[in-house]
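Protein in question quoted in full.
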Amino acid sequence: MSTLVVAIQAETKICTTDPRCTTDKLNQKLLPHTECGQFLRCESGKACLYNCPTGLHFNTATGSCDWPHQACCDPKQPCVQESLPPSISVPAPSPVLMPPSTDVVVPPQP
């Protein structure tokens, strides 16, 4: 499984009012754009346009810029999303049964 880390470069951004964005400063969600190499980031009730680095597309599943074949944005590109390895179920261990003790326990006398 390959990992792709992308830093957003500082650039002049275009922000417009978008009903999908709230004015909550803690809610800075990412939204897809009609252009695969771009995405919108909600900032104080406005959707601000950002560009992915050259050659990458915005992946709505991960909320990051990704390889085109993993972002699955462009219908002309083959889509091969990496899947997580299958989970392995491990059976619970069986309880260990011990034979009854033959020791005689005498409580302390007062």
Observations:
- DSSP finds one helix and six strands in the chain.
- The two ends are 69 Å apart (CA to CA).
- Residues 14-71 form a domain with the Antimicrobial Protein, Tachycitin; Chain A fold (CATH 2.170.140.10).
